[in-house]
C-alpha cells in the first residue's frame, strides 16, 4: 500500500501459493524505490512489462507451462499426476495457447480452449481451467504479465460458461461378470503386450496405474507376492502386499523375454519407447478393438469382480474390499494386517481367477 497524489493505492505482490516470503519482501523493496523517487510503482511495473513485450522477451504459454510443471512436480503425489498436467497443458488441449506470448493471452483465448470441451468433458475441462489459471498466476507473479487472470472462475468465467456439474464421470462401464470367462478366453488368444497387461489387471483387480507401473523388482515369483509402492496407490495409501495368483505365473514368465537384462527396475509391461511403460491408452484401445456389444472400461472390471463376490460367493465383504485395496475401516484395517490377511485375499482372488478362466457358457441359439 502506498500514497499517490494524496490517494491510497494498493499493489499486489503475487499469489501466496506462488511467492515465498523472501520473494515478497524483495518485491516490496523493489516497489518502494519508485515511490521514493516520486513515481507510481504500478505504472513503473506496467512500463517494464511493456518494454519487455516490445523487446520480445516474454516467453510463450507453452514454454512457461512446461517450465512450471518441471518446477512444481516434486510436490505431486506421483508421476501420473505430473503426466496429466503435461498432457492437458500440451498441444492436445492447449494447442491454440502454447504459441501465444504470456502477456498477450486474453479471455477469448482461454475460451477458445475450454468451450469445445466444456459440455462434453466437463470434469476434464474444469481441471484444465484450473491449471491454466495456475500458469497465468505464476506468470504474473514473475512479472511476465499484468492485469486480471483471464482463466479465473469466480466473478469471471462463471459468467461466460455454464455451471459445471458436481460429478460427470458416473460409474465406470462394467462387463457383467457372467460374460467374464468368454471375454478372458478371447483376450488370452491375443499376443499383444496390452492384452497381457489387461489380463493381469483383471486377475489382480488392480488399477491401471498400478499395473502399467509394475516393475520386476516389485514381484517375487518364488513367494508369489507383488509389493506395490505406496506412491502408485490411489491416495498414497500404504503399499499392499498383493498375492500373485497361480494363473498369473505363466503370464509373468511369458513376459520375462521382454525384461531388460539384469534390470530389476524394468517394466513388466514395457512400452514401445525404451525404459518407458506401456501407454495408459493401450488397454483402452484394445477394448475398443474388441468391439464388444457393450461399452466397457478397464476400471469397470473391478466392479465386475465386486458383483461376482457379492452374488456368487460366501467370501466376506471385507475380504473383497481388501483385495481391491479399498479402505474398510480402522478396526478391519488392523485385523487385515495380521499374518492371515494375505492368505484370505489369496483365496478370494484364486477363486476369481478360476472363474474368469473357466469354460465359457454356450449361449442358446
Summarize the topology.
Layout: E1 2-4, E2 7-9, H1 21-36, H2 41-54, H3 61-72, H4 79-88, H5 91-98, H6 107-118, H7 122-141, H8 180-188, H9 193-204, H10 208-212, E3 219-220, E4 225-227, E5 241-243, H11 248-255, H12 282-290, H13 300-312, H14 317-323, H15 330-335, H16 341-356
Antiparallel strand pairs: 1-2, 3-4, 4-5
Q: Determine the CATH topology of the largest domain.
A: hpI Integrase, Chain A
The topology string of helices and strands comes to EEHHHHHHHHHHEEEHHHHHH
CATH architecture of the largest domain: Orthogonal Bundle
Low-confidence stretches: 166-171, 326-340
**What is the SS-derived class?**
mainly alpha
Gyration radius over CA: 27 Å
Which descriptor suits the 3D outline? elongated
Largest sheet: 3 strands, antiparallel
Amino acid at each position: 500500500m502506498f500514497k499517490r497524489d494524496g490517494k491510497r493505492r494498493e499493489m499486489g505482490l503475487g499469489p501466496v501459493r506462488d511467492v515465498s516470503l523472501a520473494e515478497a519482501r524483495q518485491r516490496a523493496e523493489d516497489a518502494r524505490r519508485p515511490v521514493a523517487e516520486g513515481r507510481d510503482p504500478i505504472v513503473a511495473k506496467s512500463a517494464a512489462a511493456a518494454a519487455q513485450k516490445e523487446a520480445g522477451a516474454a516467453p510463450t504459454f507453452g514454454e512457461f507451462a512446461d517450465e512450471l510443471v518441471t518446477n512444481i512436480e516434486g510436490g505431486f503425489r506421483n508421476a501420473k499426476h505430473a503426466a496429466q498436467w503435461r498432457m492437458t497443458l500440451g498441444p492436445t488441449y492447449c494447442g491454440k495457447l502454447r504459441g501465444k506470448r504470456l502477456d498477450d493471452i486474453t479471455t477469448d483465448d482461454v475460451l477458445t480452449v475450454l468451450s469445445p470441451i466444456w459440455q462434453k468433458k466437463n470434469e476434464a475441462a474444469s481441471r484444465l481451467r484450473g491449471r491454466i489459471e495456475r500458469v497465468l498466476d505464476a506468470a504474473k507473479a514473475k512479472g511476465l504479465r499484468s492485469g486480471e487472470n483471464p482463466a479465473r472462475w469466480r466473478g469471471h468465467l462463471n459468467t461466460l460458461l455454464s455451471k459445471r456439474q458436481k460429478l460427470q464421470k458416473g460409474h465406470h462401464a462394467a462387463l457383467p461378470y457372467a460374460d467374464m470367462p468368454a471375454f478372458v478366453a478371447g483376450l488370452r488368444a491375443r499376443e499383444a503386450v496390452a492384452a497381457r497387461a489387461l489380463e493381469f489387471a483383471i486377475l489382480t483387480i488392480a488399477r491401471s496405474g498400478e499395473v502399467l507401473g509394475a516393475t520386476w523388482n516389485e514381484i517375487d515369483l518364488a513367494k508369489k507376492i507383488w509389493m506395490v509402492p505406496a506412491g502408485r496407490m490411489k491416495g498414497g495409501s500404504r503399499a499392499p502386499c498383493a498375492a500373485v495368483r497361480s494363473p498369473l505365473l505363466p503370464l509373468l514368465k511369458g513376459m520375462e523375454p521382454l525384461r531388460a537384462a539384469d534390470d530389476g527396475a524394468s517394466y513388466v509391461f514395457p512400452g514401445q519407447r525404451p525404459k518407458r511403460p506401456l501407454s495408459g491408452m493401450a488397454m483402452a484401445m484394445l477394448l475398443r478393438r474388441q468391439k464388444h456389444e457393450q461399452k466397457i472400461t478397464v476400471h469397470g472390471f473391478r466392479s465386475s469382480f465386486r458383483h461376482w463376490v457379492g452374488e456368487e460367493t460366501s467370501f466376506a465383504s471385507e475380504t473383497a474390499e481388501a483385495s481391491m485395496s479399498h479402505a474398510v475401516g480402522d478396526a478391519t484395517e488392523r485385523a487385515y494386517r495380521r499374518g492371515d490377511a494375505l492368505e484370505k485375499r489369496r483365496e478370494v482372488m484364486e477363486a476369481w481367477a478360476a472363474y474368469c478362466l473357466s469354460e465359457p457358457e454356450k449361449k442358446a441359439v
